[in-house]
TrEMBL record:
PROSITE patterns: CYTOCHROME_B5_1 (PS00191), CYTOCHROME_B5_2 (PS50255)
Organism of derivation: Pseudomassariella vexata
Keywords: Electron transport, Endoplasmic reticulum, Heme, Iron, Membrane, Metal-binding, Microsome, Transmembrane, Transmembrane helix, Transport
Classification lineage: Eukaryota, Fungi, Dikarya, Ascomycota, Pezizomycotina
Matches recorded under SMART domains: Cyt-b5
Protein name per its UniProtKB record: Cytochrome b5-like heme/steroid binding domain-containing protein
Broad class of the protein's primary localization: endoplasmic reticulum
């Protein structure tokens, strides 16, 4: 069976609680049956109903289970036409991206503490040796 194609105009016509479509990553989902079960409440779904909900869906950081549930609601794909908005976000990776902008700071801090500890230990040993030499 061929996958049905919908335009943004087709999707926009399905924007009520009793008839709710949304676009996520250029795929069309009929979320009507799920709107009452959505853990975030029906309001969040109705806010993006009938339009591209990709950014809202990804910003929340849905679980793998939520993504599996979403796949059961798939009804078709988006047929892009001239003048349609560009995709909101790309397909996410399964693992979050690492924030490496401050990774070197943590290593430098540990190194400074370690070297400081060595210096303090060396000073302590030197002071003890001087004290014993005086006795």
């Amino acid at each position: 069976m061929a996958e049905k194609e919908y335009t943004y105009q087709d999707v926009a016509e399905h924007n009520t609680k009793k008839d709710l479509f949304m676009v996520i990553h250029d795929k069309i989902y009929d979320t009507t049956k799920f709107v009452d079960e959505h853990p975030g409440g029906e309001e969040v779904m109705l806010d993006v109903g009938g339009q591209d909900a990709t950014e809202a869906f990804e910003d929340v950081g849905h679980s793998d289970e939520a993504r599996e549930t979403l796949e059961t609601l798939l009804v078709g794909s988006l047929k892009r036409q001239p003048g349609d908005p560009e995709p909101k976000a790309s397909q996410p990776s399964l693992s979050p991206s690492a924030n490496t902008s401050t990774a070197g700071l943590g290593t430098a801090l540990y190194a400074a503490v370690f070297i400081g500890g060595l210096a303090a230990y060396g000073t302590y040993q030197y002071m003890q040796a001087q004290k014993e030499a005086q006795n």
